[in-house]
Amino acid sequence: MSRRLRSAVLFLSFISITSFLLSAQEEDPGWRISPEKINIQMGEDRALQLLDDSAQELHGAQWAVDNPDLADTAETDGLMVLHAKAVGTVRVSALLNGEMRFREIKIWSAVRPIPLGTTNWGLHPIGREIGDLPAVPTPDGPFVFSLEQTVGGDTYLRADRNDGIEVWTWHMPEKTHDVELVCGDWLAGALISANRNGSYTLYTVGKDGKLRWQHAFEGVRKGLAISTDHLLYLINQSSEGTNTTFTAFDDASGAKKFELPLPPSTEQLVNVRKDGATFACTSASVSGPARTVISRVIVNMDGLAYVAFTQSARKLGIAKCNPGSTVSPADMYLARDENLLLWQIHPDGEFRSTVVEGYKGEQPLTAPVNTLSPTPSIVTDNMNGLLIPVQSSHQAGWEGSSSPADEFIYRIDPEGELVYKYPLPKYSGPLHDDMVIGTDDTVFATRGGLLIAFSARTGKDVWRWDSNLPEISVLAALVHGHCLVQTDTAVVEVESGTKSKEITKGKVMISWQGQMYRKHN
């Protein structure tokens, strides 16, 4: 989702932690008191509810506490609310249909803060955990979404308040294993994608837990962003990557506003045909589609949508040959007209196309070939321009070996002009190309296990921090100029190239208010 009105710099509340994964042998089969692992301070209230194994709320229980000197209970708006009166550990019980469940709640002194890293509350997962994300803040909407799938294949979207109380669940009407919690929207709802081989369905669920709309698509979803004007921009690509469309929908109703086909890439064989690993001479020419590499779509600070992609027209052939004879690649030519393009799309479907960088020329087929393509994580530069991560791949001629690509971050100004190309270090392992911008226009990016800080304005290094790990990813920029990074096992706050500290174990999510939530790990 586009967050063009939200600063990239966060004030973090350390630490609100949710959702610890419990083992299959965990107590309370069938239903339980929720939330769990609760720590509160004296004088605070804590709402509690009963949830079954499908996260459906149960009612009609009799509640009690084992020590009225520590806490008392009262029913408010259909929930049992515990009021903490003194320091200690109180045991809460709920009796329902002849069965009893218990929950221990630790009450801390109100004089001193609860120790850093202590769990405020946790949620019991009902099955395979697919994803969590914060809801866009509204006075009457949920605080956080969680998508989970039961052993039987039922998928549920759960919506919770900031105190861990579940407000509703939504049951996806199909059983599809590959399901994704895509993003929240500016109406405080959430988008879910049910992915199948060669197709997918988008479901939009409102803040009230009801389905707003759904659309089925052929192909692969390559990008999605939502503007504050409630336009949903979708990039859809055919499974083979040769046909790409950019479509805008009304996020509230699902009505299509416009659709733009991206210019296709092509490959033409001139006077030759492919026979296995060799070429044979022919008197005909054949053209076919080629794959388009595309970034994600974002909505920038100017309210316009942007996407970067490659467009390529290649010709492989020979000027003269005898039909039917074998043709050596050394005698063939390769003509290339290739461009890295940036589209700026307006809400009415009008767009500006800019050539960020291009190449046009002819060379022997066996000569080395360098090609440019964007990686997904295009972001704003916070100055109405863009930062586009780009790979420059190298191939030693036709069917020759490929060497590792060079990587750059291109800064493009609001007029579409290239400001600089910032070179990135070589690395191994998966690509984590997300970037965030902190104070003083410092950009934080990662490659491999390296965190890179550079100036968005000048493209010059500020510092680099080596985690000595195979891979890390950027999590958030902090208001005092530091950066949070996520490793496989922990969250680390990095101050400079030489100073860092571990904040918490596990993997986390950060809310719109800057609170940190640890995922089920």
General description of the model:
There is one protein chain. With 521 residues, the chain is mainly β. 0% of the residues lie in helices and 55% in strands. The protein contains no helices and 44 strands. Strands 23, 24, 25, 26, 27, 28 and 29 form a seven-stranded mixed sheet that branches. The model is unreliable at 1-26 (pLDDT under 50).
Average pLDDT, to the nearest integer? 91
Radius of gyration: 27 Å
The dominant shape is elongated
* Uncertain stretches: 1-26
Kindly summarize this structure in a few lines.
The protein is an all-beta fold. Helices cover 0% and strands 55% of the residues. A hairpin with a 2-residue loop joins strand 16 (190-196) and strand 17 (199-205).
Key terms:
mainly beta, seven-stranded mixed beta sheet, five-stranded mixed beta sheet, disordered N terminus, 521 residues
Question: How is the topology of this model organized?
Answer:
Blueprint: E1 9-10, E2 31-34, E3 38-41, E4 45-52, E5 57-58, E6 62-65, E7 71-76, E8 79-84, E9 88-96, E10 99-108, E11 128-134, E12 144-149, E13 155-160, E14 166-171, E15 179-184, E16 190-196, E17 199-205, E18 211-218, E19 220-226, E20 231-237, E21 244-250, E22 256-261, E23 265-275, E24 278-290, E25 298-299, E26 305-317, E27 326-327, E28 333-345, E29 351-364, E30 369-374, E31 379-380, E32 386-395, E33 402-412, E34 418-424, E35 435-437, E36 442-447, E37 450-455, E38 461-466, E39 473-478, E40 483-486, E41 490-494, E42 500-505, E43 508-510, E44 516-518
Parallel strand pairs: 1-39, 3-10, 23-26
Antiparallel strand pairs: 2-4, 4-5, 4-8, 6-9, 7-8, 9-10, 11-12, 12-13, 13-14, 15-16, 16-17, 17-18, 19-20, 20-21, 21-22, 23-24, 24-27, 25-26, 26-28, 28-29, 30-32, 31-32, 32-33, 33-34, 35-36, 36-37, 37-38, 39-40, 40-41, 41-42, 43-44
